[in-house]
Amino acid sequence: MQNTLIQRMYAQEEDYWRLRAFLREVFLLYDCQGLSWQVARLDYWRYFGNEHLEHYRLHDAICLWETDDGQIAAFTTPESRGSVYLQVHPGWRTLELENDMLAAAERCLPETDDSGQRHLTAWAHQTDELRICALQERGYVRGDWPEHQFRRCLADTIPDFRPAPGYTVRSMGDKSELPARAWVSWRAFHPDEPDEHYDGWDWYLDIQRCPLYRRDLDLVAVAPNGELAAFCTVWYDDVTRTGYFEPVGTSPEHQRKGLGKAIMTEGLRRLKHMGALYATVAGFSQAANALYASVMSSDFSLYERWQKTF
């Protein structure tokens, strides 16, 4: 490969579609091992996470490195405020490029606290010795709460988990069901917050704008009284033939009824029927990781958090 790269910021909508193609290529080159994002993760961040939570301008937050003939070699993106993820083509991986990418992120993405100190979190796969070396050289320290990455080969037999009697698993309904779907998401992820903090359901329209969204892979568990009790959205990329679960949740009043296992295994069966080879999911909490281990595999890898204050 050539020895020089041109660094620039995200400039236009066409860049987004080129980033998606790049992720598909490198995810396969890394043998689907979590050393880069799946394309669905970028979509989910852009159309939901950034649109409704982070509010970055893509022109200010995404930095690209290209060859002199215009091929993408690497790019950086946040996924939450004050964080950076590095996506690099394996053929271009050098300590120099890793340092350049971290330096760019330190200019564009840190958050400043009340005392005036700036903070940045970078992420590295536990096996990525090159990136870990770059992080340590630049003064980053390994932090807590790594992301646990689970993967399942769909050639294996999928377990047949069933929900508690009276509960059913199905695809989500039409637009009229979006308020109920948004409400069960709120209950699952904000169980201790007062109901008046609930911010409505319109955001789900942007979930459905994601390029890989399919309603037949947007699954819900329904309680005996007809209310939605649990959910998982599965993203299938037929280019890489991989599926990605994001998000997965159960309303507190319906937990411990086998809904998480039942709804995820239904997602695995549907992926396998479509021709998927692998499915992945990532979690942080003990409860989530226990669920994912029971459905996907007890083996996992870690995407570790590295933090710098400057």
**CATH topology description of the largest domain:** Aminopeptidase
Low-confidence stretches: none
What is the helix content?
A: 25-40%
Helix-strand makeup class: alpha+beta
Shape designation: globular
- Report the count of strand segments: 14
Strand content: 25-35%
Structural summary, described in words:
The structure is a single chain. The chain is of the alpha+beta class. It folds into two domains: 6-146 and 305-309, Aminopeptidase, CATH 3.40.630; 156-276, Aminopeptidase (3-Layer(aba) Sandwich), CATH 3.40.630. The chain is 33% helix and 26% strand. The protein is built from nine helices and 14 strands. Strands 1, 2, 3, 4, 5, 6, 7, 8, 9, 10, 11, 12, 13 and 14 form a 14-stranded mixed sheet that branches. Helix 4 (95-108) packs across helix 5 and helix 8 crosses helix 9 (286-295). The two termini are 35 Å apart. 37% of the residues are buried. The model has no long low-confidence stretch (mean pLDDT 97).
